[in-house]
Specification:
2 copies of one chain form a homodimer. By secondary structure, chain A is an alpha+beta fold. Helix content of chain A is 43%, strand content 22%. The first copy, chain A, has 9 helices and 12 strands. In chain A, the strands form 3 sheets. In chain A, strands 1-8-3-6 form a 4-stranded antiparallel sheet. In chain A, strands 2-7-4-5 form a 4-stranded antiparallel sheet. The longest helix of chain A has 23 residues. Chains A and B meet through α4 of A and α4 of B. The structure holds a DNA duplex.
Chain lengths: 247, 247
DNA sequence: CGCCCTTTTGAAGAAAATCAAGGGCAGTGG
DNA sequence: CCACTGCCCTTGATTTTCTTCAAAAGGGCG
């Protein structure tokens, strides 16, 4: 794992496009700083017009929106290496909020600097587009699996494993997933109770086990089938190097 | 309604940002052509690497993806003035397909020309970003209203009305909505049968009537409440002129 | 140890899917 | 002009899925 924010930012961009020496030097010149945010603390709030692009260095976070009845819908998870606040490059306010699900280390990069770099370096501009398009592709997949809770949960587990694997946080079918069942439910539009039952079904089915913050894939073939998971949707945007890490 | 593709493209960009004279001249210089596509014919297909940005001039279309069991999920509707194929500006293949829901007139603009213009004209680049962010905001809202079929359907009707109003296709609480109940169901993850029942409930409730391809809003207040609709999510991206059209 | 948060399990009820059949309407062709 | 056909809408009966309500059992941490 990269030790500095700049490393993490560079890694992320490099996974999306091929960076030239000039691109790398430009990134090297960015001002960045790192701060820690406690579990359940806001990172960005709906309506904010952020001055920084944020890069998650350690920990997990979630995008979410509140409904008028107070219930919460999580619309995406952020894992180490992910951005947030790209909205700011076009001076748009956040239309959703972001919260730390665990204690997080977050790097901040001044948005104007990123916008400038994007203008002068087409590859970097393209990387930002691709990051956005990946998010969109994931969002679209979340819409796709809304008929059957079993497949929905299984698909989320596949997505999280694949994304963790890309950034080196998974191996041998295992990775840490620090989500409560309520958070999973908020993400999938299910109740925590039902998530619990579905997780038990999956565990007893022998394909996958999510418990004690650990995701263990026991039968990848069966799981992929149950989830109707096809990792292709995560790949078109990634550079070759990143794809090869998927294994 | 604009009579040429270039007009439509200009209108769309102008609704998203303030264009300078230079921006307008650049757009004026774009090569564009128009073609007609029959109902149920593909416009773009998953895997395509489009050479053009498409602008829908007349008719409705839908983004969709097929599940492994053959069922279809519609992930967005396109109405006149909307783009598709922006993926191409970063040389990414389509991760979903787009189909004409009615007979459509579609303008094509060479993607390389758009990319060049975006690089030289920051305002136009920003407009493209904003178009993408609106799509994303809509996608996020679709995730948000997935607990209750009544609210879900009502919310979609509100969205479609608001978007139609922005481009001058709605007035006095009426607009054309050329969707079958099956298409609505595919968009919301509901069966056509259930959509039918919900539409009847809404009709009998007196807030809104969708039938014979016509959407009639009878009680905007009640409908907004049933739908928990807050048009704010469509506004942050629009220029002032476009917002004032919302009435 | 005791507290709070999370997980687990049960029972009852609501929501939506599924299965099945009929009806209206537009377009087609005799 | 009328019958036929295909597509879409409508309605009913039944079953499945998921929620709701309720309660108890872990598990980590002060």
């Amino acid at each position: 794992m990269p030790k500095t924010c700049r490393d993490a930012f560079t890694n992320k961009l490099a996974s999306l496009v091929t960076l030239s020496e000039a691109d790398l030097r430009a990134i090297e010149g960015l001002k960045v700083d790192v701060r820690q945010i406690d579990r359940r603390r806001p990172i960005l709030t709906q309506g904010d017009l952020p001055d920084y692009i944020y890069v998650l260095l350690d920990g997990w976070a979630a995008r979410y929106e509140l409904r008028s009845d107070g219930s919460r819908r999580i619309t995406g998870f952020l894992i180490p290496g992910d951005f947030c606040g790209i909205h700011a490059v076009c001076h748009a306010a956040m239309d959703h909020s972001i919260i730390a699900l665990t204690k997080c280390d977050i790097g901040r990069i001044p948005v104007d600097a990123v916008a400038d770099i994007g203008r002068d370096h087409p590859a970097i501009n393209m990387a930002l587009w691709r990051a956005k398009l990946i998010e969109e592709a994931i969002l679209r997949k979340w819409l796709l699996f809304s008929t059957n809770a079993r497949a929905t949960v299984a698909h989320l587990l596949c997505e999280l494993y694949a994304r963790a694997a890309i950034v080196g946080l998974a191996e041998n079918g295992r990775c840490g997933v620090p989500l409560t069942q309520e958070e999973v439910g908020d993400a999938l539009g299910l109740t925590a109770v039902h998530v619990n039952r579905v997780l038990r079904q999956l565990r007893e089915g022998g394909s996958v086990d999510l418990s004690h913050q650990q995701l263990v894939i026991k039968d990848a073939q069966r799981l992929s089938h149950e989830a109707r998971f096809d990792r292709a949707y995560l790949e078109p945007w990634l550079s070759e190097n990143a794809v090869s890490l998927l294994g």
